[in-house]
Specification:
The protein has one domain. Helix 1 crosses helix 4 and helix 2 packs across helix 4. The longest helix has 22 residues. A two-stranded antiparallel sheet has the order 1-2. 52% of the residues lie in helices and 6% in strands. 20% of the residues are buried. The chain contains four helices and two strands.
């Protein structure tokens, strides 16, 4: 909140996540799309906090099976934990932007059992 004083500077959560550097770098040429490592642009401290928090959530999700963690466990089946933690940090950054832009408090959406 202290670093991002006006969330209206960003058109979407995707643009906010790109500003934080949580998106892959593009090295595309000739119609061939090549995505590399994350860009690491933007505020280093916020990016680090998001990735460390996502890593803690991943450690918890591996031990406990919850309905909310289904997306994360499916991602962990396909990708390594480092890639999954950056993907979760990206998702969290988008949620943060939505909360800041709307001026609301966060409400988790629980899937119906």
């Amino acid at each position: 909140m202290a670093t991002v004083t006006d969330p209206a500077c960003f058109r979407s959560g995707r643009e906010f996540a790109a500003w934080l550097g949580l998106v892959p770098r593009q090295n595309s040429s000739g119609g061939k799309e090549r995505l590399g490592r994350i860009t690491k642009q933007g505020d280093r401290y916020i990016r680090r906090l998001l990735v460390i928090g996502a890593t803690a959530v991943i450690r918890y999700a591996r031990r406990k099976t919850t309905v909310e963690g289904r997306w994360l466990n499916q991602l962990l089946d396909r990708r390594c934990a480092r890639v999954a933690s950056v993907a979760l940090a990206n998702k969290t950054a988008r949620i943060v932007w939505a909360v800041l832009a709307r001026g609301e408090t966060y409400r988790a959406i629980h899937a119906a059992a």
